[in-house]
Amino acid sequence: MSEQDQDKKRPEQGIIYAPWERTFTRVLTPFEEFIHRQTTSGLLLMGTAIIALLLANSFVAEAYQHFIHTPTSINIGSWGISMSLHHFVNDGLMALFFFVVGMELKREMLVGELSDLRQAALPIIAAIGGMVMPALIFLAFNPGGDAARGWGIPMATDIAFAVGALVLLASRVPKALITFLVALAIADDLGAVLVIALFYTQQLALDWLAGSGALVLLLFVLNFAGIRKVMPYFLLAVLLWYALLQSGVHATLAGVLGAFAVPARPKYDPALFSIRIKALMARFDSSNQEGGNIMANEELYTVVQNLEKNVRGVQTPLQRLEHVWHLPVAFLVIPVFALFNAGIPLQFGALGETFSHPVMLGVLLGLLLGKFIGITGACWVALRLGIGQLPSGTRFSQIAAVSVLGGIGFTMSIFIAELGFAAQPEYLLMAKTGVLAASLLAGVLGFVWLWWLGSAQVQVAQEK
């Protein structure tokens, strides 16, 4: 038996356990691993959407609708905000979703898949094609009137669902293909944010809009001044959210603007951090008393506090906040959004009328065909012109299959539908039905196509 194997069998040294901690660890560890898997958020989102559909089509449907539209308010003295729970989720809670999206966008632009223009060219071009073609297909079915406001609904790809489906095929697809889809979805998110900001705003209140601009400027002043404490940014972002809510621009954009203001520079560079940690560890070792209690050793406690401070100093606030907020948004905000928005009353006796409605057809075909034609066509043109290159180890057929997964437009598409058709309940119902139907079909078709391509590739390799 090797020394490494022997070490694994030895009792853990230096770890202090509470009376029931070993038992709880054995129970919690598999759960924590499940929570941190990339596919879990997509599965949770799917489960919540199914629950919402069941609630909206059961004997509790009336109670469900009453609950999500319950009037609520926040009051401080004479000041207050009053809106339904549904609006609080869509206008308030979803700002946290856009905050995480904004941080992901900023990170990808600085050091990720969108930082190198040559590497990012193909997914960016693919994202543009995947936004333009679905909008054109929708407008072909709904060229005018109130229905035309829904042109932005089929433009967006849901990262959680699309990437989750592709990750399930990780053994059958190149890793570079997953990276391509992530970059495409992030560029797609940026496009959706711009569409919401420019085209889905209410009547503007210029005084509140000017106040919002001043708050954004102040956020970036904090950034350039080297303020790395999170609280000042949080307070200003809350004020920005309220100002945008009053201005007519959708308030969730405060999340994106706040995220772009979060500092992406650490206080200490790695070399200085290493020097400080070595000095602190020397103090730690010299002040440590064998068998002593840390609560009775002030010097040791001071050193530990300084270690924590330095560890935070070598991280960027952007990294820390993205790490902190990723799980709450993925496992709370998005499922709550789905619970409040995916509850569509299905009338099976009128399915023929539903599937012939122009809004429903525009959304369904926009996501299902528009994404496929737009992404695949844009990539084909770009490669023909020598702009960009296929991801390493991938084939064009795999890009085409991934473009079908791009038709999964759940979260952002439903969100834009709520903005576009807030005053047209019938159109909103048709749009949500189209989003759900297209997302289901796109997920199944894209998954099967990629599975088949992976199987064919394995068979060819075995024959050789």
Low-pLDDT regions: 7-11
The chain-level mean pLDDT equals 83
SS summary, helix count: 19
CATH superfamily membership of the largest domain, which one? Na+/H+ antiporter like domain
Query: Which structural class fits the helix and strand makeup?
Result: mainly alpha
For the record, the count of structural domains works out to: 2
* Global geometry: globular
* Percentage of residues in DSSP E strands: under 5%
**CATH topology group of the largest domain:** Na+/H+ antiporter like fold
C-alpha Rg (nearest Å)? 25 Å
Helix content: over 70%
Query: Which class of the largest domain in CATH terms?
Result: Mainly Alpha
Q: State the distance separating the first and last CA atoms.
A: 39 Å
Summarize the helix and strand pattern as letters. HHHHEEHHHHHHHHHHHHHHH
Main pleated-sheet profile: 2 strands, antiparallel
Q: CATH architecture of the largest domain, please?
A: Up-down Bundle
Total strands: the figure is 2
